[in-house]
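To: structure subgroup
Subject: Chain for Friday's discussion

All,

I'm putting the inputs and outputs inline so they're searchable in the archive.
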Amino acid sequence: MEAHPSTEKHDFSARSKFKSSTLHTAHGWSHPSPFDRLGGLAVPVVLESSSSESSLQIVDEDEKGPSLLHKDNNSIFERVKQLLSPDEMKRMEELGLNKTLQKGICYSALEMMLTFFAQSESELKKRKISKQEETIALQKAQIAYLDQLETNYRLSKEMDTIKNQLAEAEKSLKTREYEIHNNDVEVLSKEAELNAKDLKLHAKDAKLQSKDVELRAKAEELCAKDEQIHVLKEAAHNAVKVFKESSEYETLMGQWFLKGYDAFRSQASSLPPYADWPTLEPFSGGDRKPT
């Protein structure tokens, strides 16, 4: 496509004015660029000069051919006005960019605008990415802090639970120690009672042993006396046996028998008067039977 010579001359002068104005603004004004938020216009633009009215073709890089998105300069200007703030529009009016767009000498101006738009968009993306990274880092730090707080809270709860269990265990241990102490006291008292009973049993055993010794001594004395009595009995039995076998015993027994018989007969004569007692004679033994 060939551009008209008058259009090229006009375009060259507009480009020079816009460059000088933009450079002066970049070095002399401390505020940010008014095109920081115009990311929607960061595409290559081709100016058509075949018609009497100036129009633009915006080339879409993703498609094969150009697409007519904006057919006049006013639509571009309206798009710019929608994206800019009032202060930025005022600054554009001071720079004369609105008049440049409205007069149709917009190719070079828009080219420079798009260059600044791309740079501003890149810087804005970098700042956004940096802010997002800072936000993500802050959120991660907050999450780590919250996790640490949650961990500390959980550990504190576990520590409180362990402390309560330890206190209960200590209480149970003290109770068990008290019970064991009482049991030990009872066992000691029972042992003392058993020791006292054992001492009493030992004393009784000693007494029984002494009595046993006395009884054994008495038994030995009785055994000795029994032996003496047995000897005396044997001696007496032998003496009686010898005396009975002697003639003196027979004489003495006959005398005493006769005396007794005479006494019996004298006493019995007064009882039955018809009995003839004087005729009775004593039985002398042998084959003779009494009549």
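Points worth raising on Friday:
The chain has a mean pLDDT of 70.
Strands lie at 45-48, 55-58.

D.
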